Amino acid sequence: MPFCFIIFFINIVLISQINGFVPKGIMTFVIDRVDNTFKNKLGYFSESIVHEEIIERGIARSVARFFYEQKNGPSRIDLSKLNTDYKNIKNIYRDYYQKSFCKIDVEELISDEFQPEVASVDFDDDTKDLASAHFDAEQFNQSNQRVINYMNIIQSFLNVNDYHRARKNVARILHTIHDFYSHSNWVEMGNKNINKDIGTKNFSKYQIADVKDSKTCESNCTTIEIECNTLLKALVKLIQKLGVRSSIINCPIKYFRCNGNVLFKNKLVSGFYVDQGIEKPDNAMKCSHGGILDGSAFKKAKGGINKDSGYFVFSPHADLHLTAANLAIDHTEFFFEEVRKKIGNRKFSDFLNLEVSDSILNSINDYIQICKSFSIVIKQNLKNSSFYVVLNFFIL
Length: 396
Description:
Layout: H1 2-15, H2 24-29, H3 36-41, H4 51-68, H5 73-76, H6 89-97, H7 105-120, H8 140-159, H9 163-183, E1 222-226, H10 230-242, E2 253-257, H11 321-352, H12 358-362, H13 364-383
Antiparallel strand pairs: 1-2
Helix pairs in contact: 1-10, 4-7, 4-11, 7-9, 8-9, 9-11
């Protein structure tokens, strides 16, 4: 247990630099390895679906729809599998080509380009603390204009077949779109569908909370405390000394569990986040982003509204995380489908490297055997190793 505490708090420092769905490596590798008692202390409510998974699932759905429209597609592609079997793109290719694949080009694009870029918005100096990159601090119009600008840039790259730079910009702006669902009150307003007006001039029709609205949240959140043992006290002092994100973390460690704290149901609201350059006002009851290291969460109105994870320690509205994440997946699918409508199936196939050549198809059985042999060697090496690595390697 002491080792888990150390790893957890080291990564808390890393998480403090993040403003979005908490990255996969941190959530799954660190927190999910502590015992259930500690997870419950952190306010575990549900699994966490992160930016990297959201973009992967959205792309997979669009790829399935692409193949459904190809020759023999309706007889081979079962669209009822979009949320189950087709989360793994290899299964889409298996059904369409009637063959098992070890390696698919679009999977490499997802892991090498889309996923690093969608996560980078939380780490790059020019965007990690930029409110308009995350729909934070009531910057809805600025965030929407950012989406419009990026969509124009993406289209310009697609027009000249510069697919690499188009993919890079798609991933980066999808991060912003994902954050609309986890950082705003769109879900709390009772919306069950995505907002298709994001990235269009029609977005201006929505009422938005602004400086004139002095009370957008109330301080009715439940405060949760974690008592500090000797180790935790030392680690809290370390974080205080580092001055991470203007944190006011102390012992006992406190975080908030919020429900019904957003006052507006007819206006879009988002939370303020510490160190973004747009400070939460002292003379108003504004919503915070919230989470253990968001210092603004301890200013009135105390708490927060983010739904970035399934843990209340990070997300005061963790109970709504899966709803927000699934809307983000839906919007990712919608985004790629809109791209496909604009450029057509031929260019869309080139954009995502979807085509499989006849030579590959004809040699697929030998290829699978090579992959299986390679997988066995890796597993044997890992079995004799004292350090285990999470390896996303699938043989079907």
